[in-house]
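Backbone description:
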Amino acid sequence: MATVLALAATACSSSSGGEEKATPATSAPGGLESFYNQKPSWRDCGGGFQCAKAQVPLDYRKPSGEKLGLSLIRLPAKDKSSRIGSLFTNPGGPGGSGVEFVRQAATSFGADLRKRFDIVGFDPRGVGASDPVRCNTGPQLDKFLATDSSPDDQQETDAFAAESKGFAQNCKTKASSELPYVGTANAARDIDVLRAALGDQKLTYYGASYGTYLGAFYAEQFPSNVRALALDGAVDPTASSTGLLIEQAKGFETAFRAFAENCVKSSGCPLGTSADAAIAKMTSFLAQTDKRPLANTRDTRKVTEALAVMGIATALYLKEYWPVLRQALTQAIQKSDGTLLLTLADQMVERKPDGSYSNQTDANMAVNCVDKPNPSSLAEYGTGP
């Protein structure tokens, strides 16, 4: 994910930022008329994109109370005469910036879609530029993310538990008033407000990873307001928090085997000559890194097992990253240089060169904990979903 783009609501600066004629939206729920009937003011924000802000209530049970600002971006439909409406998108996470996703990926959508739909992204409540949840400083996240999350002994278990409790306490201290309201149930209600505010009678939506869960949640709450949903990499909405982690781990294992099978077909693969040998080599490498973290040439951080795993996982999301992963593992295994693995890890958690972070990690934890509270006992993590 890219760094967050700060957005502001201003008046349209050109005719391209005006409102299109749209089919009247469905009626607003009682007490929420002012939110459903709002008309965001779009402004040009570069690259053919338009940006705006919309308001939603912090607590839907108290619509006259505190409000949140949601940041929006859109790439207008190319052919306004045949325009169908808005294609709302969510890239996953939770915690991923929908604004940055559209800015980076909108032009990758098919020509037919771009011709007839505005490609719309938004930062969900608590994320990115939408009144973000902030719990930890950069140094605090550095320490948390470097801590071994697959402890092998009591000392490592205690260290991981202490860091996790510290993370939770930081959120309680700095964001306690926001935390109860950042879950998926409220985010889905926000989408319905945005749908109406943008003039769409029914929702057309694309979601990936966690975005599939958000889309499914919306469909359950507002079934009559759905036009079409495309859910890419569907998350099981019934799975527990630990169950989701286990399924994600299985997915990474499958992806790593695919990478390994590709790597060993070429000379110079640092993992050996077969997929099984590659997996054994990786197991040994990570065990060694757990005992002796790697150095890096970018800063003073040590590349621990946790950071190495994160770097590997980042590159497994896309086949296009496999050459980078091969190079990173070659440097790490043959030269004990973890620089490239750390660079990949930093990309996943949106760590900036100055040591600061976007709020992705804080938001991810906050939303997940609201949606699917984690077990409070360490023993429960060893029993499966």
Summary: Residues 242 and 380 are 9 Å apart (CA to CA). The radius of gyration is 22 Å.
